[in-house]
């Protein structure tokens, strides 16, 4: 059964507003290499605007759509975000547009990685500090090898 994104994310937002965690499957390739379309799930948790910081992955509203990307910069209430697999494109939103924070990543084998862990923060920091050209080459090689 397939339901529209508007109905699906309205329910997700309602559950988050109630203070509950929600697990959803990732769609799309913009968060590669850490999240793989139709294979990775994430646990979304309620978040507080004042705690959002660079490196956090959030679900936010952007031009009528829901997008899940990493915060690359914060200037007061204004956030700059980008997908880990996007080496050029960025989005901007305010903290009021943030629906939830990704608190855990669950791979296709059911193994989970807490996003607050030292290991996750270190791996994420290394990836985001890697020059865009090198990231592009790594992602291109993964794509050619069928690692999508």
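Sequence proposed for the structure above (148 residues):
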């Amino acid at each position: 059964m397939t339901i529209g994104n508007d109905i699906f994310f309205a329910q997700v937002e309602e559950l988050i507003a109630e203070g509950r965690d929600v697990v959803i499957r990732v769609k799309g390739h913009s968060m590669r290499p850490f999240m793989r379309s139709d294979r990775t799930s994430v646990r979304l948790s309620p978040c507080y605007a004042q705690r959002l910081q660079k490196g956090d992955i959030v679900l936010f509203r952007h031009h009528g759509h829901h997008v899940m990307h990493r915060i690359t910069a914060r200037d007061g209430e204004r956030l700059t975000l980008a997908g880990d697999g996007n080496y050029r494109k960025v989005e901007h939103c305010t903290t009021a547009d943030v629906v939830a924070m990704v608190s855990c990543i669950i791979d296709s084998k059911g193994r989970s990685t807490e996003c607050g862990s030292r290991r996750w923060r270190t791996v994420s920091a290394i990836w985001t500090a890697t020059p865009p050209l090198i990231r592009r080459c790594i992602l291109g090689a993964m794509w050619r090898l069928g690692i999508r």
